[in-house]
Amino acid sequence: MRLAGPLRALVVVLTVGMTWILGSAIFGPDRGIILVRQLLSAPSEVITPEPRPRRYKCGLPSPCPDRHFAFRIVSGAANVIGPKICLEDKILVSSVKNNVGRGLNIALVNGVTGELLDAKAFDMWAGDVNDLLKYLRPLHEGTLVFVASYDDPATKMNGEARKIFEELGSSVVKEVGFRDSWVFVGAKGIENKSPFEQRMKNNKNSNKYEGWPEALEMEGCIPQRPTEDH
Predict the structure, then answer these.
(1) Angle between helices 4-27 and 29-41 (to 10 degrees)
(2) Which ranges constitute the DSSP H helices of the chain?
(3) In 3-state terms, what secondary structure has residue 95?
């Protein structure tokens, strides 16, 4: 690193010298001096790398408005790569945190503060759907519910479980089937259907993986639930 300056100066001297020698030999001494002056007065071209696009919370390409939570959800890829749930630049669920599992991966969040209340995975292939029902039935008003599928989200999901997700704002939970990819954000007490939901059907003719569709990725800004003072 300390040789960079001297080496750069040496290159400049050699360049100037060669320019004077060649200019003098071809055009004469006076013309050689003129060429050297032109060389020294020419602005050096500086190549600057393209700036990287700025990324915001959870990798979003633009910041969320005030009183909104930034989020990103990625479903599992087949039965190999686990799902991920990010909120306000904090990873709530991921394989790195060792809190993912086959089925439905759910994170419950305080809709006012954005605080993680709990995160848990429910096996919808060989597990007991009653564990999922006991988890969802007592939700408090305004609780945000983040859902990311992994492997199979639907085999054990019964009518009551689907109805609860509908009440949380889901539009497609009735159609979620064996090995579908599904990501969803809803809330207890939501008045309309949630705009944050995607489903990819398991179809052997179009699956990205042999027995599973491609993973889904969804991002956005969730309005913060107002407090009693607002």
Answers:
(1) 150
(2) 4-27, 29-41, 129-136, 159-167
(3) coil
DSSP 227: -
**Packing angle, helices 129-136 and 159-167, rounded to 10:** 30
Distance of CA 148 to the CA centre of its chain: 13
pTM score, whole prediction? 0.77
Helix (H) or strand (E) holding 103, with range, is strand 103-109
First to last CA, the chain: 58
Any idea what DSSP says for residue 225? Answer: P
Both tokens of residue 8?
A: 């750069």
CA distance 17 to 44: 18
pLDDT of 170-180, one tens digit each?
A: 999 999 999 99
Residue that has been written with the tokens 């979003």 in this structure: 60
**What pLDDT, on the 0 to 100 scale, is given for residue 114?**
97
